[in-house]
């Protein structure tokens, strides 16, 4: 590992076991970097189902790229509410890999701020499922696609259940 690499381990133990059997979860994912995205989405779904979320209560939609995640997330939330099937939490998933231009910084900043603002605007948990990696290898590690990697989608799936239940308990 280089001096810039940090542990890719998960978030660690939770404060308790959460039952997601009554939750509806939205996942909105970008289509760029498909192999990494697919692994992250799969990891999230595995953890959601392990926490009791029913397969039919996991709604998955796509958007072209990570920049579109905030609007795509808001649109999915609105569509589900309009259909009388509101979501309890939403998990946008995207991957940004630094290139040789400022594009990475602008997109990472805009998406991060957009997702943070969205959860307060709609009063619904929005899990931060955006990988912002310096190299493709880092993205592969964080999707669990290398021997020394860990799938952060799993952590995001667990976080989605925890935050949805905490949100329900607060209301």
Report on the structure:
Homopentamer. It catalyses: (2S)-2-hydroxy-3-oxobutyl phosphate + 5-amino-6-(D-ribitylamino)uracil = 6,7-dimethyl-8-(1-D-ribityl)lumazine + phosphate + 2 H2O + H(+). Its EC number is 2.5.1.78. InterPro entries: LS, LS/RS, LS/RS_sf. Catalyzes the formation of 6,7-dimethyl-8-ribityllumazine by condensation of 5-amino-6-(D-ribitylamino)uracil with 3,4-dihydroxy-2-butanone 4-phosphate. This is the penultimate step in the biosynthesis of riboflavin. The protein is α/β, with parallel strands linked by helices and 171 residues long. It has a domain at 45-58 and 69-88 and 104-162: Lumazine/riboflavin synthase (Rossmann fold, 3-Layer(aba) Sandwich). Helices cover 45% and strands 15% of the residues. The protein has five helices and four strands. The protein has a four-stranded parallel sheet with strand order 2-1-3-4, with helices on both faces. The longest helix is centred in the middle third of the chain and has 20 residues, at 103-122. The relative contact order is 0.22. The model is unreliable at 1-6 (pLDDT under 50).
How is the topology of this model organized?
Blueprint: E1 25-30, H1 34-50, E2 58-63, H2 69-82, E3 89-97, H3 103-122, E4 129-133, H4 136-142, H5 152-170
Parallel strand pairs: 1-2, 1-3, 3-4
């Amino acid at each position: 590992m280089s001096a810039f690499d940090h542990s890719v381990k998960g978030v660690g133990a939770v404060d308790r076991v959460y039952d997601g059997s009554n939750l509806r979860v939205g996942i909105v994912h970008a289509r760029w970097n498909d192999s990494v995205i697919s692994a992250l989405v799969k990891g999230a779904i595995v953890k959601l189902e392990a926490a009791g979320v029913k397969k039919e209560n996991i709604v998955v939609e796509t958007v072209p790229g990570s920049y579109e995640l905030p609007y795509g997330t808001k649109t999915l939330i609105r569509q589900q509410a309009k259909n009388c099937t509101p979501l309890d939490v939403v998990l946008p998933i995207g991957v940004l890999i630094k290139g040789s231009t400022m594009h990475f910084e602008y997109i990472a900043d805009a998406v991060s701020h957009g997702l943070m603002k969205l959860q307060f605007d709609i009063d619904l948990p929005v899990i931060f499922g955006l990988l912002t990696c310096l190299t493709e290898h880092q993205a592969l590690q964080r999707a669990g696609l290398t021997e020394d990697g860990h799938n952060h989608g799993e952590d995001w799936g667990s976080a989605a259940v925890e935050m949805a239940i905490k949100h329900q308990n607060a209301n």
